[in-house]
Amino acid sequence: MEKQYHVDFDDSHGALYAILPGDPGRVEKIASYLEKPRFFHQNREYTTWLGELSGKTVMVISTGMGGPSTAIAVEELYKTGVRNFIRIGTCGGMALDVMGGDIVIATGAIRMEGTSKEYVPVEFPAVASLDITNALVQAAKNLKLKWHTGIVQCKDSFYGQHSPDRMPSGYELKEKWDAWKKAGCLASEMESASLYIVCQILGARAGCVLNAVWNQEREKAGMSNPHCHDTESAIKTAVSATRILIEQE
Question: How far apart are CA 70 and CA 198, in angstroms?
């Protein structure tokens, strides 16, 4: 087959499983948890390494920030043969019991971004694959991590969340934020909805494990609010879950 336009490679990699960080700078670190890690390709925001787990090839590829570049990556990876996608990312806690350093496994996403709306109307839910979610939960249990499962908010504007008062549409942003909190939303991030919807449309499996960096609601409430930028727990969870999926196959 011809090379895909954005990721710039074809199906010669042989991977059915892909781990998707947003940041290209995290790819090599994640790949180091695989067997026989090796650089594969780099183009635009898509830095790609390959490795192995239980004798199967696993890809680690960055998607950049936000829904559009994530959707492009998933579309093109699917064309090259990838069928299982696990996003590793960071999030900001919203529910008061989510603290910095906790793991959030997103069972579904609030579609507050724009990319998924160009695939299917907003009434259609963005949900994770049950198989991948179960593998992520089992991995977190095996690793004895503090983990949460539930809904996350997926947005397009980082600064819309953190500086709503200076935005002309800030009144809507704040009202919806309060609604998501009241409904029990765990955390906020920027890629899960696009990942879930695109995989649903393609017939692929998807899951998402996030490291909570901090929780602005805990800070507002005067509660302890540790910050944690280390994604090692999320990485170990994703890699272990991928191994579980491979061995189940």
Answer: 9
